[in-house]
Specification:
The chain is α/β, with parallel strands linked by helices and 434 residues long. The protein folds into two domains: 166 residues, Lyase, Ornithine Decarboxylase, Chain A, domain 1, CATH 2.40.37.10; 253 residues, Alpha-Beta Barrel (TIM Barrel), CATH 3.20.20.10. 29% of the residues lie in helices and 24% in strands. The protein is built from twelve helices and 21 strands. The strands form three sheets. Strands 4, 14, 15, 16, 17, 18, 19, 20 and 21 form a nine-stranded mixed β-sheet that branches. The radius of gyration is 23 Å and the shape is globular. The relative contact order is 0.16. The structure holds pyridoxal-5'-phosphate.
Length: 434
Amino acid sequence: MEIITRVVTRCFGQTNGELLVGDMPISALAHTYGTPCFVHHRTALDRQWERLRTCLPREFSIYYSVKANPALGLLRHFLQKGSGLEIASGGEFHLALRAGCSPDRIIFAGPGKTDAELEMVIKQNIGEIHVESTRELERVSSLSTRLGKTAGISLRINPSGDAQGGAMRMGGKPAAFGIDEEQMDAAVDLARRLPSLAIHGVHLFAGTQILDHTILLTQYRKGIEIGKRLSARVGRPIRTLDFGGGLGIPYFPQDQDLNLGELQLGLDRLMADVQHDPLLKGTRFIVEPGRFLVGEAGVYVTRVTDIKVSRGKRFVILDGGMHHHLAASGNLGQTIKRNFPIAALTKLGQPESPPVTVAGPLCTPLDTIGREVALPELAVGDLVGVFQAGAYTRSASPVGFLSHPTPPELLVAGGNVQVIRRRGTYDDLHADMV
Ligand SMILES: Cc1ncc(COP(=O)(O)O)c(C=O)c1O
């Protein structure tokens, strides 16, 4: 409950126990736009952007990581603030262009890029391709030679053991991501020999959902060390050094907020150390956060469709579930199934009734959104929401499973509602069927 109070206070608001988003009662939004839906508060997005921008030294650029939530309205929102976009597929490249992003402000990471995807981005002069293996290096080189282009590339490096962290570790271990640090020099030499490549720099990505600033700073220090090694190897300062994303937000009772004040102090010290380093002269530093920028501003809003008791256990059934929010059901890589912050959105702060199981509408026991959840006494028709739902919800969920319509997404601020994703129709769902 404590996280919900914190998030409601800093990101939303409430009146008489009802959640307000951009000064609008959640019941009014749910009535007009239906449930299930995602509601994002623009002011909360702005707040998070400002907090991050203030924390980062001016040499840093932010590239929003599209995979967290690819809604065009969000991409445009961040582009207007001066963000670039980090993409991981041809589909996300297409969206980035539709959002009006200039190709040179797009960077493309991810293992298994296809020739078709690489061709598309090279033709359009993408800012950087983050190369994940020496074979990919060769493919990018031959494709760009054939297209008469020079591809800007960065080497994605899988750092050796000491820069790990986060819920999902992506560094230090054998991984599908990046080139092992131990093989970096050979990869750089290969990149220098191959035609039609411009080596921009390095990209380091070692984790996601990191709440400890010391882990981030350790990664950044490691990134600096790797970046300097690359500069020395190519004989000039690298143009870009991408530290990845990974900044976390609290989901569970023991989660503390990332300490941005300490992160800022650490980054300032780091920048002071490298300021006069000829190996990093003019280097632009990049972070590519997803979750941190959009996670807190979003609520997944559902309505209670049934309440029942099965063999003494009380179940609350919602009209939304794991097809829109897989992580809340505990089926997105978590080893321990813990409850995301769930609340009755018109009964905030009311006394709790005995704990209930909260289930979605899908015909599978996997669709359990909360176990032993302490909620006020609920009735059919009540609104139940999952907080911290702006990132990796719909974009990381099996939306096609059971053919429910996709949920709308609203961007709300100061009494103004923008539908940034409409509710899908049955025909939308089946549009590709022949
Ligand atoms: C290459 C890359 N960049 C950025 C991100 C964004 O991470 P986060 O949302 O934790 O900031 C991810 C997430 O998996 C990623 O794979």
